[in-house]
Amino acid sequence: MSWRDYPKVELHLHHEGAAPPDFIRRLAQEKSVDLSRIFNEDGSYAYRDFAHFLTVYEAACTVLQSPEDYRRLTLAVLEQSAEAGVVYSETFLSPDFCGGGDVGAWREYLAAIEEAAAEAERAHGITLRGIVTCIRHFGPERARPIAICAAETRGPFLTGFGMAGAEMVGRPGDYAWAFDAAREAGLRLTCHAGEWGGPDMVADTLDALKVERIGHGINAIDDLALVDRLAEDGVTLEVCPGSNVFLQAVDSWQAHPIQRLRERGAKVTVSTDDPPFFKTDMVSEFDNLERTFGWGEEDFAEMGRNGLDAAFCDADTKARIA
Ligand code: ADE
Ligand code: ZN
To answer: Which residue among 192, 202, 245 has the greatest number of ligand 1 atoms within 8 angstroms of its CB, and so is best to mutate?
Structure first.
C-alpha cells in the first residue's frame, strides 16, 4: 500500500531543518553568500556526523535573514509536508535564528510564519502550530531570552516551548529557569533527550524540566523501569527513526527500539526531524516501519491518535483534524 495519501500527524520537525536544499541555495545566490561547502555535488546537504550536521544547519540559517525569508521558508516546508500527507504539524522555531532573541524582532518573524501557515492551510489543508525552541549548546544564559520570546507570544499558534541542539552539553537542570518561565506562561513543554544521552538524561529531563513530551527518547530502552515510568506518566516520545538511522544514533532500522518501546507501553509517535538532511519524509518513515516491523493500517492509526493526543493545539483544532 502507498502511505502517501494516508493522513499523518507530525510533532517533531525543525523549521530550518526542513528547508529544501534548493531553497537554501537559491537564497544564498540571491544574497551572494557562498554556501557551496555545505552541499554535495548532487545538491544534498553535506556533513560527516551529528556535530558537523549542527554546524551545517547553522550555516544554512545564515541566509535566512528576514521575516520575508521565513514566510517563504514556511510555504516551502508546508508544501513539502502536505505532499507527504501530513495534515497536522508542529515545528520548532528558534528566535536565536529569528531576530537573535530580541522580542520585537521575533514578533515580526512569527507574524510572517503565521501568515504563511494560514496561506498553506488554505492551499493544502495542513495545520501548523509552533514550538519555540532554545538551543542547548548556546548555553543556559541564551535560553532565558528565548523563553521570554516564547512567553510573550504564547497564543493559539505558538503553543509550546522546547530545547534542541547538542544534548551532551550541560545538564537539563541548567535550563530549568527557561522551562519554568515557559510553563508559568502557559506553554506546553518538550525537550530533546535520549537521542545521544542515556536513560539518565531522559530521567533528569523529566525531573528538572517537567516536560510532557520527549524529543527522541530512544535510549530510554536501556532502562525498562524508566520506560515504565514514561508509560505510567503518559509521556509521549517524538520518535524520528529515519533521523536516528541516518545519524547513526542506532545501527540500523532493525535495531531501532521504537517497536520495543511501544510493546513495553510507552506512547510513541513518528516524525522526520530534519527531512532533507536525512533524505526522508513521512512516507519514507511509514514505508520503512512497514518493511522493518510489519506495521500496517492499525499501527499507523495508533500513531495518528497518539500524535493528536499529545499535540499542543487546543481541543477545537484537534476535533477538526481527527
Ligand atoms: N536540531 C535539529 N535536529 C536536531 C536533532 N536531531 N537533535 C538535536 N538538535 C537538533
Ligand atoms: Zn529534533
So the answer is: 192
Domain assignment present for residue 320? The answer is no
Mapping DSSP to helix (H, G, I), strand (E, B) and coil, where does residue 289 land?
helix
What is the residue range of 180's domain? 11-315
The yes/no answer to whether this complex scores an ipTM above 0.90 is yes
Q: Which of 167, 152, 259 is nearest to 205 (CA)?
A: 167
Instruction: State which ligand 1 atom lies nearest to the alpha carbon of 136.
Output: 9
Distance CA 194, CA 24 (A): 30
Cα-to-centroid distance, 244 and ligand 2 (Å): 10
Let me know if residue 145 belongs to a domain.
Answer: yes
Residue 226 maps to a domain: yes
The radius of gyration computed from the CA coordinates of the chain, to the nearest angstrom, equals 18
What CATH number did the domain enclosing 70 receive? 3.20.20.140
Q: What is the largest CA-CA distance in the chain?
A: 53
Q: Please work out whether the CB of residue 192 comes within 6 Å of at least one atom of ligand 1.
A: yes
H or E stretch covering 9 = strand 8-14
pLDDT confidence of 1, banded at 50, 70, 90? Answer: confident
CA distance 186 to 237: 21
Whether the model pTM is above 0.80: yes
58 is catalytic: no
